[in-house]
Amino acid sequence: MKKNPLILFFIAAIVAAMLITGIRIARNNRANSGGTGQLIGNLAPDFTLQTIDGKPLKLSDLRGKAVLLNFWATFCEPCKVEMPWFVELQKEYGPQGFQIVGVANDDASSDEISKFAKNMGINYPILIGKDSVSDTYNVSVLPTTYFVDRDGKLIAREFGLQSRSVFVDHIKKALSQGQAVQARR
Amino acid sequence: MRILLTTALLVLSAYAVAQDDFGPRGPVVTMAPAAVVTAVQGKPATATLEFHVASGYHINSNMPKTEFLIPTVLKIDAATDIVIGKTTYPDGVDQSFPFDPDEKLNVYTGDFKVDVLVRPLHSVQPGKYAFRGILKYQACDNKACYPPKQLPVTFDVKIARAPRTPGRNPAQSPDAHQ
User: Fold this and answer.
1) Quick check: A26 contacting B, CB < 8 Å?
2) CATH 2.60.40.1250 applies to domain B24-161
3) Among partner residues B68, B69, B144, which is closest to A143 by beta-carbon distance?
4) At what angle do helices A5-32 and B2-19 cross, to 10 degrees?
5) Which fold has domain A48-176?
């Protein structure tokens, strides 16, 4: 049987198209899902974690504020680059109802994390991370940063070090969305 | 021919699409198959283990200069009759990265070798012995870091019988009476 080059071409094209589509779908699912569906556009999965001071902090208690949720680690040098910006941004946008929350995704001890945070002059709460939370938020890269609007909805996510202006843009958007109610904390 | 070229182009496109996602697709560090180390009863030998860090990534050296960084460490499971001696790591390279051009980190990139000294006891039976362990490392690229990983490590040591010392009667050896 003689093979028609045109048919072969179409088969190859269809196979490649299916491959590309499959990869894209799989990637989107992996990036956006926390095992329970899409993250961006939905309410931020709630959690309660201990701060380095030993106090519990529940994410949903910040409802009414725009939140930058930053997953980081003491061993992560790019994370260190962002932190001074976060300190400034907390000062600048805090009065408008903006709150940064750092989640240490780290095997380091609480004391080491505290020491690190102190050295960096951190002026926002640092939480001791848990695998269940980082899995829910699909954190496989550090830093990973989520932006939550005042209604508690996840509006954006950034993997890896970003420029300061990217954070500012997301913060402004988060502050402009949702109801500015009195946060419980 | 044109069909083949088109197919190759399409597959390469799909591959490129797969690569633009964030983070490594596979292990950042891999180990080359280790050559069998031959050692003689009672004599030390060195196992040289060769590792490769994927392009675009770096891992901390065994002696990172910056506090909080996780060093690369090789741990080999202890074996009976063959003592694991000193592990010798290569010097890292001081290198700065785009995320902080002012700070130099001491890292491994590309290929690096780690030497492990093995000391078979006199009493060890000749034969081939398999060693297992892990290489603990923590990788980053120019924009992000990845959680610490453990790479399984294996190598074989072949123990040969020590040559007999000629003209010596073991029964008269002072060692035989100790």
Assistant:
1) no
2) yes
3) B144
4) 0
5) Glutaredoxin (3.40.30)
